[in-house]
Write a structure and sequence with these properties.
The complex is a heterodimer of chains A (about 350) and B (about 375). With about 350 residues, chain A is mainly alpha-helical. Chain A has 15 helices and no strands. In chain A, about 70% of the residues lie in helices and about 0% in strands. Helices cover about 75% and strands about 0% of the residues of chain B. Chain B has a two-stranded antiparallel sheet with strand order 1-2. Classes of the chains: A mainly alpha (about 350), B mainly alpha (about 375). Chains A and B meet through helix 5, helix 12 and helix 15 of A and helix 1, helix 6, helix 11 and helix 13 of B.
Chain lengths: ~350, ~375
Amino acid sequence: MDALFDIPIIGLVVQFAVYLFDQFPIVAPIIAAAAVPIVLGALCGFMNERSGVVNIGIEGMMLLAAFTAWWTASLSAQLIPTGPGPLGITPALLIGLACGIGAACLASLLHAWLSISVRADQIISGTIINIFAFGITGYLNLLISQQAPPAAGQFSKFLLPGSITQLPVVGFLVKSFVSVGPIAMTMLIGVIVLQVLLFRSRWGLRTRAVGEHPRAAETVGIDVVRLRYRNVILGGVFAGLAGAYLTIEFGNAFQSGMTNGRGFIALAALIFGRWTPIGAFGAAFLFAASVGLERSIRIAPPTGSLGELLTAVPGQFYGALPYLITIVVLAGVVGRSIPPKAVGLPYEREKTGG
Amino acid sequence: MTAQTRVLAAWQRGRAVALVPALSIAVALLIGAMIMILSSPLVSGEFNPTLPVTAYQAMLSGAFGSFDGVVRTLVNATPLVLAGLAVGIGFKAGLFNIGAQGQFLIGALTAAAAGLALNEASPFVAIPLALLAGMLGGLLWGFVPGALKAYTGAHEVVVTIMLNYVALAVLSWAISGPLRGQNVTFARTDDLVAASLPIFLGRDGHIGLLIAAVSVPLASWLLYRSTIGFEIRTTGANPDAARYAGMHPRNLIIFTMSLCGLLAGLAGASQLLGEVGYMTASFSTTVGFDAIAVALLGRAHPVGILFGALLFGAMQAGSGNMQILAGLPVQMVGVLQATILLVLTAEVVIRRIFRVQASGPELVELASVSASYGGKGTG
């Protein structure tokens, strides 16, 4: 093994692979937990952009949902105090989840109205949602935290019997993907369902048509405006899940500005994943892995020449890697990512009788 | 034309341009008042319908009630004017520079690096060089998305958003590594001595004010009186027409984004050298985003941006007073700013309510910014 490690460059690659293999079981849960909100956010962007609406307000929608879910869950936990059921589910948490999704859907409705009906610039509309969400959640959070409301708890993971999780390799994969909380499970289902629907259903065909060439879609009788409205608002559901995940599944508290750029990484994952759910899923896990790698190098740095190399790279580099990759992919240096053709263009119905 | 008719014409033109923003601000303040009333049980434990009156009064007196307050307003407006121009000039070229935040941070960082290197030098050397370093840092952060847009078609919105986060990472690395101060308890640089901007007005009116004040007429001249400004506006209105007229949209895109970066970098440098005096990871994290709001409010026109920046600067200056007298967190200002922007974007509704005619083609160029998001899309 050591002889292999000493070959220049290739040796480093081998060392790196061995290191990753060693660390993987420890880092994988961290990666999976970090990827969930990014995937969900990317699904929100997917619903918007595939039907021709740019959404850079994912960050704000997530933040609104995170705050609303946490606050309403906390309020209802004071009204209906019950012990947790399976998966840690309590009525309060369900109410919180519903309200969080509702808040994100309201923000999506605003985005849909501004970008589809008012035909305002879609990027401006998203920017407004981000600024507004940051302001209002910061404002209310400060007012609320003066009274220090009790946390409503959080969803817990689905626990598999030890006999399954202890299986070599398979057990580990099963644990990472099945032994998760309810929102993370919804994420997995959402990715698969949307991927199948996009390429195999009437809705998917129509959505792609509206996103690529709305005029042609309308001539075959598709109601462009209605489909866009529906998709944008449905996209809000995923942003809502992403936000709620942060405050009632992954953690149980809210901090001002806690989405911390995840909505924008989600946008990046969508682009890197070429506007498909599976692609975005892979990209989100890759991006999350970059964060996981940084942590693993900090806690358990590899030994030898690889260790020297990796610890010499500043930790911030790994955090910035997803953004750099996205720029490279968008610029088409390595395998170009091409957006839906009509994305960003407001649609005006064909004049009838003229 | 007599002087009187000229004044009248100017008044009518100004009224046509400013009416909708003014109405939007008024409507937004009303919505803000409703938010205050609705949240008043959280502030004082009971419904308080007069809370908005107290709050707005406190805000006004905080921003304009004293000489120091007015200076504070001007100081707050300074980075917003420069960064607002960095967004507004981009709009004129049909570019949406969401990256003002990253350019602002990098500008401040490079200014800090230069200022630290020149800490022993004379201020006459250190100040210009530090400001120049800030401008160059911002320019670089604007050049990259400009060049990528011009030569690969990568949309500047996504690239600049990504670069904002790259800038944060660079900043965090620099101040916890190479630029970290000697005797500091958290990640920050040493105090900047030689390069700190002199105060000439009141308690904290630094000469960055003058830079911002000069940049407004300069930007106006550039956009409306110079050849390159004409080419920028033509490219923004119709890149194909610009190409047929013999202009070079690619070069103009790179030039405009670089110029925008330079202005945002200058904003960062002026804020760092005039206001803060040392660099931290939490350095003015919202200026670049407020600048977008300011540019939209000012209709991307330099004079409009000046007014927008003064309004936002005043709101920030008055927010402390509002917190003390009305008990409202300063974050209320962010809510008000977002509401102003929201109402402004839904200006169709405002026009319908107040029966105002459309004032002309000013906003048409803004409405086409996201159209290029999907490449050369057709409807």
